[in-house]
Amino acid sequence: MCQITSKSKSDSFALSIDSSDFISGSLPIDSFIRPNKIFTADKNIILSIAGHLCETKIRNVVNSIVKMISS
User: pLDDT tens-digit profile of 10-54?
Assistant: First the structure.
């Protein structure tokens, strides 16, 4: 998983997301995905699903992770 925050960060890897980036669901406010903040979480602690990102935004996140690892 990647961290998602509503706080604007001076992070060159942060990717903005808004309601147009979702194929279903949404977040209450525009937010930022932080691909450089990767973590694992047990599925039992996930209480709900906010939505599903569109394929283009997912590809942007994956490309950012690959770029970060390749540097």
Answer: 788 899 999 999 999 999 999 999 999 999 999 999 999 999 999
**In the chain, where does DSSP find H-type helix?**
55-70
Number of residues in the chain:
71
Burial label for 33, CB within 10 Å (0-12, 13-18, 19+), is: buried
Question: Could you please report the per-residue DSSP string of 33-46?
Answer: EEEEEE----GGG-
- Bridge partners, residue 15, by sequence: 33
pLDDT, position 9: 72
Six token digits for residue 70: 């390749």
- Rounded CA separation 38/63 (Å): 14
- Cα–Cα dist 57/60, whole Å: 5
